[in-house]
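Newbie here. four chains, one complex. Structure please?
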Amino acid sequence: MRDDREIGKHRLRLDHFLPYRLSVASNAVSTRISRAYRGTFDLKVTEWRLIAILAEGGAMTAQALVGATRMDKVSISRAAKALQQRGLIEAEPHGADGRSRFLSLSDGGRALYAEIAPQALAMEANLLADFTGEERALLENLLRRIEDAAM
Amino acid sequence: MRDDREIGKHRLRLDHFLPYRLSVASNAVSTRISRAYRGTFDLKVTEWRLIAILAEGGAMTAQALVGATRMDKVSISRAAKALQQRGLIEAEPHGADGRSRFLSLSDGGRALYAEIAPQALAMEANLLADFTGEERALLENLLRRIEDAAM
DNA sequence: TATTGTTATACTCTATAACTATA
DNA sequence: TATAGTTATAGAGTATAACAATA
């Protein structure tokens, strides 16, 4: 620990470099998670995010989904198109604005969500199995502060 | 906070879902960092990792780089090829094994590293500017445990 | 003119398999 | 047979620009 601190002042060690550690951890998690979504439900992560947000929030426009997911409008548009083609989401006209539509889960989409959500929570619980409640809250807090600092 | 805990027991909220938060934080950081590498030094992240490891460790085989970076042998091979074509790394025969070579930084590679490393450390310091030393150590610890749990 | 959303294109990272040359 | 490394190919995520329709 003392060695780390002293070296860290002047030299870079990839193994302790935050962007690297963050990337490795995130990649390990998302590889595991995306395999589960893909294998069991034939969903990409981007599609799963839309389903999760629509399940929480009800009908939303594409623009609202951009704000809710940190995905850009191109990704939203493509994920929504794929889900619509599978009948998992539905579009209703947006009375006040002809450019936009309200997207929401279909019955099939809600049924799929009801299947996935418990599995997603179980995977998360598994990842955090040996974390205390305090550590979980701290991790979320630290990640949000990193995210804010990077934007 | 009470609401979050109570909802969290039964429902999934993307905004508080660890794989999502981790992905968003990692993506925000690596977008910012990779733009700097790319724009200033014309390096991909994978290439930068090789340079950083070779700067720390001296001559290594591709296999040793796989172990040191969590990149697979395909990524190592491609990054090494690109760096060698630019004259940033050199290869020496591995006396005992004709299939393998020892890779190391050239003088040009070391000069490039000497330029990048301080900037990389400055970017990291900027990201962690409002973190205490304790928080930094904790974040690294939590990320490593997540990574271990995901593998 | 500006905004919502779509399409086209390209780049990075990753995963897999097929291949070579050595061991 | 097994291992070190290379090449080919494809999928997923993201970024940018050009575009159509509407505001």
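Moderator note: Strands of chain B lie at 89-93, 101-105. Residues 106 and 147 of chain B are 33 Å apart (CA to CA). Thread marked as resolved.
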